[in-house]
Amino acid sequence: MNELLTEAIEAHGGSARWRRLTRTRATLVSGGQLFAMKGLPQDPAPREMTVLLHEEHASVRPFGAPGQKSDFTPGRVSIDRIDGRVVAEREDPRSSFSGHTMETPWDPLDRAYFNGYALWTYLTTPFLLAMPGFAVTEIEPWREGGELWRGLRATFPPEIASHSTHQDFYFGPDRLLRRHDYHVDVAGGFAAAQYVHDYVVADGIVLPTKRRAYRRDADGRPILDQVMVSIDLSDIHFS
Q1: Contact between residue 212 and residue 230 where contact means Cβ atoms under 8 Å apart
Q2: What is the pTM of this model?
Q3: How do the domains of the chain map onto residue ranges?
Q4: What are the contacts of 128-133 at 24+ separation with CB within 8 A?
Q5: Closest of 78, 119, 114, 83 to residue 236, by C-alpha
Q6: CA–CA separation, 55 and 60 (whole Å)
Q7: For residue range 163-216, what is the model confidence (pLDDT) as tens digits?
Q8: d(CA 47, CA 149)
Q9: Paired residues of 228 in beta bridges
Q10: DSSP state of 221
Q11: CA dist., res. 9 & res. 135, Å (int)
């Protein structure tokens, strides 16, 4: 395994601990300009996010209405009632984004797909980078303030749904994640720089509770007045 990735995994709780866990639940509050642009502005109500750790499967409740939840995998997304009845579903959900620009409206299933893959990616970073099929190489570091952040470029395998095939992860001197760069392919491919902070330890796993994704300019700098997505996590439990 790549040396920097090994150090990052240990800093975030270690591979031995991660292998013993199977899922996480967290309270999620999200917002940002992207959802309003897509015609689905996000309210500030807290929701429960559930993610499986070793397969790409995620759910958030309530979703769309009380008594409903989303159910996401790369090959299918649905909105279900808590009693199991399906409200709406879509097979091969990635194909529905073909030809989308940043301004193309989303429907609720599009939003459920985006939410599912994004939160699965975030709640399994950096451990997912050691999963079969990922290719990881070290890239030029990023200097931010007085720190030099070492970087990894990850190539995601086709069976994993995420923002884009190639994504960059930058780690501080303590090897905790500081920044995550990607292109949002399901929204016209715009470049994003996501900053993470306010770390906590939850059941032995170290992870950030605040994420802010900004549009990224041609020099790689965040455009600070364009917060595309904000995520606040609390009450996080791994099991």
Answers
A1: yes
A2: 0.97
A3: 3-234
A4: 128/160, 129/5, 129/154, 129/169, 130/1, 130/5, 130/9, 130/15, 131/54, 131/160, 132/157, 133/157, 133/159, 133/160
A5: 119
A6: 16
A7: 999 999 999 999 999 999 999 999 999 999 999 999 999 999 999 999 999 999
A8: 32
A9: none
A10: -
A11: 15
Q: Point out which residues pair with 201 in neighbouring strands.
A: 206
The pLDDT, as a whole number, for residue 8 is 98
pLDDT on residue 1: 79
- State which residues of the chain have pLDDT below 50: none
Give, in words, the CATH class of 3-234: mainly beta
Count of Cβ atoms closer than 10 Å to residue 30 Cβ: 23
Q: Using an 8 Å Cβ cutoff, are 232 and 21 in contact?
A: no
Kindly list the distances between the CA atom of residue 228 and the CA atoms of 214, 215, 234, in Å, as whole numbers in the listed order. Answer: 5, 7, 20
